[in-house]
Amino acid sequence: MPNFALTPLADSYKLSIIMNKDHAGGLFFLFVGICFLSLSIKLPIGKLTQPGPAVFPLILSLLLSLMGVLIFFSSKGKPKIDRAEDRDNMAKPLAIILLTLAFIIFMGPLGYLVTSFLYLFSLFFLVSRFKWFFSASLSGILAAGSWYFFGKFLGIFLPLGPWNL
Amino acid sequence: MDVLTNLMGGFQTALSLQNIYLCFVGCLWGSMVGVLPGIGPLAGIALLIPVTYGLEVTGAIIMLAGIYYGAMFGGSTTSILMNIPGESASIVTCLDGYQMTRKGRAGAALFIAAWGSWVGGTLATVGIMFLAPLLANLAMKFGPSEMFALLLVAFFLLGSLGTGSFIKTMAMVILGLLLGTVGMDSLTGTLRFTFGIHDLYDGIGFIPVAMGAFGFGEILYSTGESTVREVYKPRFRELLPTRKELRASWAPILRGSGIGFFIGLLPGSAHILSSFVSYITEKRLAKRPEEFGTGRIEGVAGPETANNAATGGAMIPFLALGIPTGPAIAVMMIALLIHGVRPGPLFISEQPQIFWALIASLYIGNIILVALNLPLVGLFVSLLRIPFRALFPMILLICLIGTYSVNLSSFELLVLLGSGVLGYFFRKLKYDLAPFILALIIGPTLEETFRQSLMRSGGSFSIFWERPIALTFIGFSLLLLIWNVYKSIWVGEKVAKNNVS
């Protein structure tokens, strides 16, 4: 089971749940299993002579939920997640995730060329911490090069954006 | 004689200028992909899928196979020169390969790794030539119940041979199977878990999930890396091993070929497993096992041969049964499906010219790889000097464009991103992603064969034990399940006792 700890914080206490990796994994599988189970029971189950589309997802979601429970309770004695270390390690991945989401959202409206340049520039400058001039130059070359290679040489249709690039 | 005649026909096709060029490009790209940490054979194959669109199908499959083999060849370079595995199967090569570098024997290690890989790859290709058609003929006698039972064995083997615990691996398998049910049910046309999103009607795209989980997720995980590593650059003159090193390498190379080939037939992390088994075998057979880890040539020769032979072994179930045994092969399968080629029991009989051209190209590719990897080691080492923080933005962009080019769908980019986040967290939580990816691609076939079996038998489960092949496979699956449950309980008790003491 996860441990519960009360940490003194000024005049009150902060309740933290100290989990380890298996707790997190187990809860994830249990959650997904229950979601799929609730959706599967709405599908037609069919007959034994003609099993319906609900049968397989039902069995699998029950099994997945069971796996989640087993993993959760098998985690005795494992080291807990170090939240401070995790927070430090997640800053760059989080930045990359958000920038990639922005790329996906804006690629259609702004076009591939502009969006890829901005995406690469943000990654080089903000995440990799190169100087702005180097980031801009490299981004320009790579964005233009990829636009030419994929769009012109391979003939893949890339979004043009409002400037028809 | 038939085999030789077919092989000659295959060489006739494979030795065209265009196909040799495509094989060369595939091997070169694969070697570069194998050398660069952070981008594995799966991403390497997926990224080149758009390039294959304009190619004729034989040329496309030759190039994709070149990448697959090349990545296994290339992975040893960084293991030996930098103590960083270029891809996961080369982890073991770091143990003795890097120590040989520190003793000034990097060239010999690289030469033996390349030589062993060539021998392993060539012998495995001989195996494919004879075994794949036999297995395909046998598989044509399979009905849905036999196919279902065989896939069940594959999944339980995945659980047994996975790098994590059995329960965790099975959880990943079941998650993959469950996500494989998203989309239109093939038997009734019912939409499942699509939430009205048109892009999900055909199911969750395999390429965005694979690229996301392995490519994108790997980069998210690696962005914390900031250490500067020393890279040793051997001169061409230093590449030759001594006679003693050559004599010491022969037996491990032959043993590694056998070990790798047979383990490659099994689903899961065959490359990693084959190189580990080979290393342990060489250590057990050595007169002075305590010297392993200090720069023994056997510690490089055996594992590198095994992981290349496993590459060949893995092609057999893929080509003959249509069952991909690893994530990179699964991406190759998708690439072939895009070109209208379906690997499986009918592939060899209906499209023999493609099959035999592929076999011939494997022989040619193995030679190209030896010729490439040794002289070009300087070029590959230069690639390694590019800091990861300069490389990963381009890799991310190529992942995005590679995925977008398949169906021109922004929704699939969101799937890639979501899979990347999932892959990142699974890596942090120490879950193996390969079983999840394999289950995603094989899952629909498992369900279809299960339901078809019941429809054929009028709802009776006896179809699974009245047919002898199905019964054998189901029996083997049950044995695997019981063994793994017992092992999990036994290991769990041991861990608990150790914690208490």
Shape summary of chain A: elongated
- Share of residues in helices of chain A: 55-70%
Strand-residue proportion of chain B: under 5%
Low-pLDDT segments, ≥5 res of chain B: none
Which class do the helix and strand fractions of chain A yield?
mainly alpha
Report the major sheet of chain A: 2 strands, antiparallel
Quaternary structure annotation? heterodimer
Please provide the count of β strands of chain B: 2
Radius of gyration based on Cα positions of chain B: 22 Å
Describe the fold and architecture.
The complex is a heterodimer of chains A (165) and B (501). Chain A is mostly helical. Chain A has helices at residues 21-40, 55-73, 83-110, 112-127, 132-153, and strands at 3-9, 12-18, 46-47, 50-51. The longest helix of chain A is centred in the middle third of the chain and has 28 residues, at 83-110. Chain B has one domain (2-500). Helix content of chain B is 75%, strand content 1%. In chain B, a hairpin with a 6-residue loop joins β1 and β2. The model of chain B has no long low-confidence stretch (mean pLDDT 83). The chains are: A mainly alpha (165), B mainly alpha (501). At the A-B interface, α1, β3, β4, α2 and α3 of A face α8, α9, α17, α18 and α19 of B.
